[in-house]
Amino acid sequence: MSKKLILYISFVVACGLSLITYSVFKINPHHISDIVILIIFAAVCESLPIYINTNVSVSVAYAVDLMALLLLGPYEGAVIASIGNLLLIRDINGKIKCALNTPYYKTLFNISQIAISVFMAGITYKYLGGQSGYIYPKYLVEAIIASCVYYLFNSGIVAVLIKLLTNKSFMSIWIMDFKWGTINFLFLAFIGILMTSVFVKFGYIALLIFFVPLIMVRYMFKLNMELKQSYYDTINALTKALEAKDRYTLGHSKSVEKLAVYLCREAGFSEAHTEMVRIAALLHDVGKIGIVENILNKPGKLSKEEYDHIKQHPVSGYEILKDVPFLKNVRYWVRYHHEWYNGNGYPDGISGRQIPLEAEILAIADVFDALVSDRPYRNAYTREEAYKIIVDSEGTQFSPRIIKLFKRAYEKNKEDFKHDF
């Protein structure tokens, strides 16, 4: 980890642990039983996250934490949220994740940032005149503002962490990487405020009433993730089928995927956007499935007719993917990944900004990996030689914008710019 990252994590942890310690001494002794019950409920909800994609999830405990700070106040809310997060137990790909098998600094950071977020939301609610234990309709606006503060602190603290990890700009991370959370935030804020109002009238039965809908929402998102996973499994199967046919490009698609991710980071793409480019990287040569093996594996130079046949694979890939709704943008990136900036590429001969940036990313990653890999007609170039060949192609094969991204990605991740699959 970089020095800045260590300092940031240390700062958040120091603030969070100090706040939790202070809150423990400030809680109302009459709230102990409520705190224990809400901690258990928060821990259960933390253990059942809603997965947005393979790397990002949102916890339904947001609604419980919001309910805690509105019902009991900022100190009790911070204690409930942090201890609930500490006690989570999750099943991730068949492996149990809990505080005992998670690096200590990750656990401390997580409980600290959530304690800070909940406390700041609670203080905001209290400062605006909101009263604990009574929300609708008198303090509804205050409750909505407090829920926004919770979300902004929570996402903001994490966005700074991602910035230090990826070197992306703070605003691009907040706007793009957390765009997916807006609808979930609005829904869970609504549930949290509604739970609070029902709890005031009916007591702990409110937890039972709302636990079922929360579980149902999680289940629907889980089904969506499983559907997405089936797409990925199909993509991997297609990639393996192609590599089994073309022995000279074994591991090529995975290498292109890896390099494409670095370029996407430099372009400021969101995680969801990057994920689609990764899929395109895995599928960029899928059209070669329709090419006969004696051409794909020919040890010598291809004839003009054979090369013209090979040049049809972007169109074949487009045709294979065009009827898959999930890949509506990917199909174009696959079609255009052999186009040149000066218009001398194929299959359509488009040029300049007509070529999508995503297709340019695939193209430059494709060429670099091809250069550093052995081919039947030549040995692999060194990393430095391949870099020079690509940079010297600025203005002809590659645009100035993609060369700029390539240079930055190469300098930051030089050791990973190699064919190693």
Spell out the key features of this protein.
421 residues; mainly alpha; Hypothetical protein af1432; two-stranded antiparallel sheet; two-stranded antiparallel ribbon; 66% helix
Write a structural description.
- This is Metal dependent phosphohydrolase.
- InterPro entries: HD/PDEase_dom, HD_GYP_dom, HDIG_dom, MASE9.
- Keywords: Hydrolase, Membrane, Transmembrane, Transmembrane helix.
- One of its GO terms (molecular function) is hydrolase activity.
- The protein is mainly alpha-helical and 421 residues long.
- It has 2 domains: 220 residues, no CATH class; 171 residues, Orthogonal Bundle (Hypothetical protein af1432).
- The chain is built from 18 helices and 4 strands.
- The strands form 2 sheets. It has a two-stranded antiparallel sheet with strand order 1-2. Strands 3-4 form a two-stranded antiparallel sheet.
- It is elongated.
